[in-house]
Amino acid sequence: MSSLQSASLARVKPSATIAVSARARELKREGRDVIGLGAGEPDFDTPDNVKQAAIDAIMRGETKYTDADGMPELKQAICRKFARENGLSYEPAQIHVAPGGKPVIFNALVATLSPGDEVIVPAPYWVSYPDMVLLAGGEPVVAVGEEKDGFKLRPETLDAAITPRTKWLILNSPSNPTGAAYSRAELEALAAVLRRHPQVWVLTDDMYEHLVYGDFEYTTIAQVAPDLMDRTLTVNGVSKAYAMTGWRIGYAGGPKPLIDLMRKVASQTTSNPTSISQWAAVEALDGPQDFIAERKAAFERRRDLVVSMLNQTSGISCATPEGAFYVYPSIAGLIGKTTESGVVIDGDSTFTTELLNAEGVAVVQGEAFGLSPYFRISYATSEAVLEEACGRIQRFCASLR
């Protein structure tokens, strides 16, 4: 019998982060004491004013279809957000709204990639980027940002990765999985390379922009290099800053010809995001923003706790990230060691499996993000839970021989 699976899907792996979270939930249902640090989901609740806006929308009967790529009221709110926070001037016709950040990125790639087109994906990368490129018919080209460079793409690395077939560069700042964020100077250096290659478009995923720590000043590439705005898609959403992961609203601003193509994709796939979520997102973007600073301070305390405890763990070293709610510790010092049950730690996949088996801590292997030997922790949970989890990691690493 011929294979049911399509050739394009056969090139793709399931999401590792979703798999880890599902495994943690499964073990919990079986009665295991499991701490899941795999999901990139804030533990804070959606703000009450946003919830109320959704209830009000339901009561007003705002429960019908909207335009395929977002209703005018939300597009106008997104334009105001881009102007207020990023100094970027967009018209509503330059805005695309979809059911989450993933579909925004997918729509852009499907709309623009032909077989053989290349997309530069800096590693460590969010697990979905390379697979979305493959599904859209393109070829991901991985360009590694080393830990010594803060896990960030060097201009010379970018330059070396570009070929005549390069269509896109994907930038994610602050990054999932490392929390690394590009400074204005670092973005300017990448922009200088891109100016020499006018065929390369930039897709910047700014989902974690509000979660940067210390005195780090957030900028996005179209803000730093306005001359690149006519080939830049600036992607964002309400999931992380507003704790609205389940509401599924992502958005982007970009050149109208690109947005028109993305709307065409949306019209034949998902169609519009939920009308009620769109009205909630209007309130999120236009309403009070003061809670963001309070939550950011909580995330920063959690980051400092986790980094400190991991750096006191035998065989682990952990860089301090600029943003997001992830750390990406190295287990180079544990490779070759053996667990009490006789399993040799030969890489980060073995490490994460044995950590879950021995101590009930679910984290994601670095292999899934394109750079080993590391693992990712999401610290989007309480300090008490993080302290317990890091204590278990310390105990597991201390037991290795």
Written overview of the protein:
41% of the residues lie in helices and 12% in strands. With 401 residues, the protein is an alpha/beta fold. The chain folds into 2 domains: 7-45 and 291-399, Aspartate Aminotransferase, domain 1, CATH 3.90.1150.10; 64-286, Type I PLP-dependent aspartate aminotransferase-like (Major domain) (Aspartate Aminotransferase, domain 2, 3-Layer(aba) Sandwich), CATH 3.40.640.10. Helix 6 links the parallel strand 3 (118-123) and strand 4 (139-144). The chain is globular and about 60 Å long. The protein starts with 6 loop residues before the first helix and ends with a helix. The model has no long low-confidence stretch (mean pLDDT 96).
Under CATH, the homologous superfamily of the largest domain reads Type I PLP-dependent aspartate aminotransferase-like (Major domain)
Q: How is the CATH topology of the largest domain named?
A: Aspartate Aminotransferase, domain 2
Biggest sheet, strands in spatial order?
A: 2-8-7-6-5-3-4
Number of strands: 12
Q: What structural class do the secondary elements suggest?
A: alpha/beta
- Whole-angstrom Rg: 21 Å
How many domain units?
2
Helix content: 40-55%
The portion of residues forming beta strands comes to 5-15%
Question: Could you say which overall geometry the principal axes of the C-alpha atoms support?
Answer: globular
What is the typical, i.e. mean, pLDDT? 96
The CATH class of the largest domain: Alpha Beta
Largest sheet: 7 strands, mixed
